[in-house]
Specification:
By secondary structure, this protein is an alpha+beta fold. The protein contains 10 helices and 10 strands. The chain has helices at 6-9, 17-29, 36-62, 96-116, 136-151, 154-159, 198-212, 235-238, 243-253, 263-274, and strands spanning 73-76, 83-86, 121-126, 131-132, 161-176, 179-192, 216-221, 259-261, 277-284, 287-294. The protein is globular.
Length: 313
């Protein structure tokens, strides 16, 4: 059977560079296998995450917080044809499925930055004593303000060191007199313009500790972006909160920017978006690395209605 001409299959005969890149990646990746054990483990992790998300969303709904959206979406396997409905959760940062989606959006930029800036390190800032659930917003805002002030300190600028990423976490849920409290802290990635001598580095850390006042730690050179960008609250901790406590946490975290790119990392992300690039993982001698490729999910607006395509009023 002869295949019909391409022009009868598609209204647009132009194959964009991004589409050529996509087809090449599909050709390269097709046939790659994973072991049944790895597949089953990933399936179990996805199922657990979804169960936790539904449980938390249902509790929020039970106390008047709208946790589900109205979209009806289905994901379809291009090869298998298997259809799987997607649950539309509202953009509530501590619902595990939402947290994972939001984290994945920033992880690529963070990993790409780290692999191209070999002096990047991770610092961990704590915010003082354990924080009751009703004071979370005030504590997080204060911690963010202090990090911004630290970034602008003369001793940071003189050392050529800047904080380019911060991710705040509500860690280690514990109940004090029956009420939930959190260990609020922040993982930050710093960018170093140059390598400092041991003496200069020790002096810088001493100045940061003295200025910060609360516990601060240099977590050495970072190897994986995921180390600095975790869940806002561990899903297991969230399961130990009641519906009313989850509502309080929702109110406390509403509109807070818990994960934020700063300085050079923010510029990198903006440049990538402005040039319509996305990340693709490739194998290399040390395992794998990210490279940027044209985003095949978008195309120039002018190309959507070429003059050669007839239209009807």
């Amino acid at each position: 059977i002869r295949r019909p001409p391409r022009s009868t299959l598609f209204p647009y005969t132009t194959l964009f560079r991004s589409e050529r890149v996509f087809l090449q990646i599909v050709a390269n990746e097709s046939g790659r296998e994973i072991s049944p054990e790895v597949f089953e483990k990933k399936q179990a992790e996805r199922a657990l995450l979804m169960d936790q998300s539904i449980h938390i969303a249902d509790l929020l709904e039970s106390v008047g917080v709208k946790a589900y959206g109205a979209a009806k979406l289905t994901i379809v396997g291009l090869i298998s044809g298997i259809e799987e409905p997607l649950i539309d959760f509202r953009n509530i940062v501590f619902i595990p499925a939402v947290a994972k989606r939001k984290r994945n959006k920033v992880l690529g930029d963070l990993e790409f930055f780290i692999q191209n800036h070999r002096f990047s390190r991770m610092w961990v800032f704590t915010s003082g004593a354990r924080c009751p659930i009703g004071a979370v917003a005030a504590r997080v805002k204060d911690m963010h303000r202090r990090i911004s002030k630290l970034n602008a300190k003369p001793f940071m600028k003189a050392a050529g060191v800047s904080i380019v990423f911060r991710a705040s976490e509500l860690g280690a849920l514990e109940r004090v007199d029956g009420s939930p409290t959190f260990h609020i802290h922040c993982h930050a990635i710093i960018h170093m313009e140059r390598k400092l001598s041991k003496d200069a580095w020790s002096i810088l850390l001493g100045k940061v500790r003295e200025w910060w006042q609360f516990h601060f730690a240099d977590a050495k050179q970072i190897q994986m972006a995921r180390e600095a960008c975790k869940y806002v609250v561990k899903p297991g901790d969230l399961l130990n909160l009641s519906g009313d406590e989850l509502k309080t946490l929702y109110d406390q975290l509403f509109k807070l920017h818990l994960v934020q790119a700063l300085g050079p990392l923010r510029d990198q992300r903006r440049d990538r978006e402005d040039t319509d690039q996305k990340f693709h993982r490739v194998s290399c001698r040390l395992g794998s690395r990210l490279e940027t490729v044209p985003n095949w999910n978008t195309r120039p607006a002018a190309a959507l209605m070429p003059s050669s395509v007839p239209h009807h009023d």
